[in-house]
Every structure is written in structure tokens, then in C-alpha cells.
Amino acid sequence: SCFWVAVLDGNVVGIVAARGNEEDNTVELRRMSVDSNYRGKGIAKALGRKVLEFAVLNNYSSVVLGTTAVKMAAHKLYESLGFKHVGVVEHYALPGMTRSLLERMFFQVRYHRYRLQLREE
User: Fold this and answer.
1) Which family does it belong to (predicted)?
2) In angstroms, rounded to a whole number, what is the distance separating the alpha carbons of residues 76 and 82?
């Protein structure tokens, strides 16, 4: 696993993590985030490319990610990096949710899954 931090003018402006899974030879892109004041400057794309580079250098066959992002910009970013949308889970329960009646009424989260095949196994 790895964690990268984007720093601009001495300030942390973005982060991303990658977690390898040897069972299915994939890397999961996790926790990508860019400070809202620095979005649209290519920082997220650069962070995503670091994860892809890590996957290639370590001979993983694919990179996967899941997101609850509602902004289309996030989905377009993943697709611009080569990821393909492979599914969606309706009524996804975020970690820590209890699935109470109020949560089910007010927090209907869609969880999108993406995959980038680097090479065939």
C-alpha cells in the first residue's frame, strides 16, 4: 500500500492512497481528495496517475475504485484516466451507518464501481 500527498507552495492540496490486493492482483484507488480551492488544476489527475504508475511498476493486472461522488467531474476524471464504469449499488450504506428508518429516508447513496484493466491475467 502507498499514500501520496500533493503539496503546492508548502500547502497540502491533495491526497490519494492505493491498496494492493494480492488475491485478485488488483490495486484499489482509495481516498482521493483535493482541496476545493485547488480543484480544476490537474492535481487529482496527477494523483490518479501516481496510483496507475504504482500498479504498473508492481505488476498488478488492474486498478479498481468505488465512489459515492455525486459530482459528474469526479466520474469524468476517472474515465479520463481510462477507468470503465462497471456497476452501481443503490442504497449503499456508508461505514458507520445503522440503516435506521431516518437514514434510509434521507441518505440514499449510490456507490459507483470503476475498473481499469492494465493487462490480462
Assistant:
1) Belongs to the NAT8 family.
2) 10
Work out the angle at residue 29's Cα, subtended by the Cα atoms of residues 9 and 33, and round it to the nearest 5 degrees. Answer: 35
**Phi, psi (deg, nearest 5) at residue 72:** -65, -25
CA atoms within 13 A on the CB side of 99: 4
Q: Mean per-residue pLDDT for 96-109? A: 68
Q: Are 16 and 30 in contact (CB under 8 A)?
A: yes
Rounded Cα distance between 4 and 37, Å, is 19
All residues at 6 or more sequence positions from 37 whose CB lies less than 8 Å from its CB, including other chains:
13
The whole-number pLDDT of residue 95 equals: 67
pTM of the model: 0.84
What burial class does residue 9 get, using C-beta atoms within 10 Å of its C-beta: 0-12 exposed, 13-18 middle, 19+ buried?
exposed
50 Ramachandran zone, left/alpha/beta (phi>0; psi -120 to 50) = alpha
